[in-house]
Amino acid sequence: MKKITFILIIIFSVSLSSQEKITLNDCYYLLKTNYPLVKKQQLLVNQNEIDKAIISNTKLPQFSIDAQITYQSDVIQFPLAMAGITPLNNDQYRATFSINQLIFNGGLTAANLKIKEAQLKTNQKQLDASIYQLKSQINQLYFSVLLKNERFKLLMAKKNQLETKLKEVKSGIKNGVLLPASDNVLEAELLKIEQQFIEVESSKFSLIETLSSLIGQPLNSSVQFEIPLIETQFQNKINRPELELFQLKKEEIKNQEARVSKFNSPKLNGFLTGGYGNPGLNMLDNSFQTFYTIGVKFHWGVFDWNINKKQQRTIAMQKDFIENETEIFKLNTNIELSKQQKEIEKIVAIINSDKKIITLRTKVLKTLDAQLKNGVITSSEYVTEFTKLFEAENTLLQHKIQAQLAKANYNTIKGE
Predict the structure, then answer these.
(1) Which residues contact 53 (CB under 8 A, 6 or more apart)?
(2) 147 closest CA partner among 230, 227, 28
(3) Domain extents in the chain
(4) pTM: predicted TM-score of the whole model, two decimal places
(5) Which of 5, 158, 283, 353 could tie 194 with a disulfide, CB 3.0–4.6 Å?
(6) Mean pLDDT by 10 residues, the chain (416 residues)
């Protein structure tokens, strides 16, 4: 047991003396850089480029080849006066090559490109918001590691103090001032501390491993976690990426409205068709012929039973949904800020009380220390009061870390 504790102490000491450090802001940055979801950003860009290329290609000439062979049960019959004309065959053949060129579509292509660009920004911001929500988890892990570090230091101080006291007790036993079994209680307490060393380090390594997975950065016992000094301004100004996301969704809806309004716009296409078949364009020539047609085609959907207007109403309702989501998000966020502010104020008040308790228990322990030396009290009574002081110091330590965690969470909720 003592060997294991000694090894853990060495590891911990190496950790504190190492030059390799990490801060809370480093963890935030590494989360935004290395978290697997970040890779999706580039995938969205690549997909958007392909989608826009597909839309842009509608402006290019469209080529097509068609061929057909048919057999008709009946064909056109000519009067006897035109008996010199060879009647059409029941079997007919046709192969064509066509070119179609979009000339004008009322700006529909440009509207589709704007929608794709807006969708890219919305999807990217959605990823940012998802990653940002992990910051609270980073806070919890980081400050939990800090708490384990500080608890380790506190255990070391307690261990050193008890070892010093144990030497004094053994000296008292040797000189006949104290009872022979007075040192057993202190030795048992030292064994408990050794167990606590193992528990603290085991828990700490588990926390570091989880944090390392989140930030995509290998962390080991040589990394020193710096204690941040977090300043918090209590105000309800929210700067969360979710608000930007809502705004981008509104812009995307505006682009959708613009596209819908262009669905019934006039459209103009040019076309050229060349072919070879029997019969050709001349129905009176019953032979294989080459032929072509060239021209323009105009289309305008004048009446659509108000389908377009109904689609615009549906899109307008989506705006209202987003406005409602924005209001709900702001309300919930302000509620969380208020709760977190009260939590910070509560912990600060408790810390002041903790300090007073420690001051009083320190005075009591000094009195008991003198009494133990003179054999007035037993070592058990001394350890009981010593443990109470240690617990009070540990509680103060926890509350200090909790205060910093609460401030970090407040800033995270606010969007800083």
Answers:
(1) none
(2) 227
(3) 2-70+88-313
(4) 0.80
(5) 5
(6) 46 48 92 90 93 91 94 77 69 94 90 93 93 92 91 87 81 74 81 91 92 90 84 83 94 90 89 92 85 93 82 88 94 93 93 93 87 79 84 89 92 90
